[in-house]
Amino acid sequence: MTFLPLLLLTLTPIQIDGSFNDWPDETTKQEDALFLYSLIDLPKQACLQQLSEQHIVELGQYTVIFSPEEKGYGISCKKGEEWISPYEAGVVFAPTTAATKFELRVNKATFEKRTQVFDFTPQGDFRVVSWNVQFGNLLEDKDRGARLLKALKPDVLLLQELDGDDTPETLSAFLDASLGDNWDVAMTKSTGKERHHQLRSAVATSRKLQGAEHIDSGSWRQLKAIFTTIDCEKKPVNFISLHLRCCGGPTGEAEEQRQEEAKAIRENIAAHQSPRFVIAGDWNLVGTTKPLKIVQQKHFDVVDAYQPDGLLNATWSDTSSSFTPGRLDWMLYSPETLHVVNCFVLDTSDLNTETLNAHGLLGEDTAALSDHLPLVADFKLIK
Fold first, then answer.
1. Distance (Å, rounded) from C-alpha 16 to C-alpha 21?
2. Those residues with Cβ within 8 angstroms of residue 307's Cβ, 6 or more apart along the chain or in another chain
3. Per-residue DSSP letter, 145
4. Whose C-alpha in 77, 102, 201, 207 is 20 to 30 A from the C-alpha of 324?
């Protein structure tokens, strides 16, 4: 085992994204001014938070227990002999899907959060924001939602988890009042009796909405995905807002349903044979990445966006949960016709006071509105 000294890493913090490109060969532990890092290897592919037996890692002052035996899922954490929240220790790891190799990070004892100057200026021809708004909080906490959207300046919104009572008309009226312009909205139907079945996905735009249709879900009646065509710089671009089945692990009914839902979306894409696609939403990749790969195939690239600190690509977190931050929200696009000129995952707690004040934001805004963070990408039309 090789340990890379602090001096060499003070200016090169590790990105927790599951790619391992920033780990020197044969190095399994690292540190910088703020964090301690460790690599984890498993004998076979599994999700660290869904293991059959618990896995313990000692790192700095913390003991991190993956899939603790008393629960069988999630993460428990101790500081010395004291049980604490994994969020208090700053526990993050990637990937959060099934794998054999992972990178783990915890805070050092001297940790102090650093905030960033951030530029919200849109670039390219149009900006897309994909956002799970947690049981319709966008239309419940309208003031907070409005100031976040004003800062983000979207041209196209791909929303998930609108409440069953939310309608295209109420969303359109809110966007008109909050952002100006005239916003067209297409939304999935609300079905089922339980609230989580009634949740809706939507596409909204201040550009011209040329058409919309619900994606046939086949045997999975609760598929929350909608297909739209929008005029962007006088060229039609197709957008899909999707929300796949939640929960479970790499095997079982939930993972099976996610893959079947992905197949239905893939069939819809193939039927349209359009050269320009942006496909985004809450993929709920808590098991495998197969649902993403089914839709992606060789036709689409992934938007690799990071939070303002440039160190995490996680899009979900919940400090009351035993599950730590993960990348549940993904965006795909057609690389032959669209170019990503800028992208980010907005976590307002990363922003410095000057940036927050300049946009009328509060540091707690994103966390207070939803357990998911907005995923943002600016595109330029190539052809």
1. 10
2. 313, 314, 344, 345, 346, 347, 350, 373
3. H
4. 201
Q: 122-137: string of b/e by CB count within 10 Å (b at 16+)?
A: eebbbbbbbbbbbbbb
Write out the two tokens for 234.
């006088």
Cβ atoms 332, 277 nearer than 8 A: yes
- Asked if 314 and 307 touch (Cβ cutoff 8 Å), the reply is yes
Q: Which is it for strands 82-84 and 75-79: parallel, antiparallel or unpaired?
A: antiparallel
* 126-381: CATH number: 3.60.10.10
* Measured distance CA(252)–CA(33) in Å, rounded: 42
The answer to pTM > 0.90 is yes
Listed by start position, the domains of the chain span: 2-107, 126-381
pLDDT in tens, 169-214: 999 999 999 999 899 999 998 776 677 678 999 999 999 999 899 8
CA–CA gap between residue 156 and residue 50 (Å, rounded): 36
What counts of helices (H) and strands (E) characterise the chain? 8, 21
Please give the Cα distance from 264 to 217 (Å, whole number). 6
Residue 379 structure tokens = 């595109």
Tokens of 50: 């869904």
| Sheet containing 338-345, strands listed edge to edge, beginning at the edge strand earlier in sequence | 184-187, 200-205, 156-162, 126-132, 375-381, 338-345
Query: Could you tell me the CA-to-CA distances from 6 to 61, 111, 147 in Å, in that order?
Result: 17, 14, 40
pLDDT digits (tens, 9 = 90+) for 319-363: 999 999 999 999 999 999 999 999 999 999 999 999 999 999 999
Q: In 10 A of CB 73, how many CB atoms?
A: 14
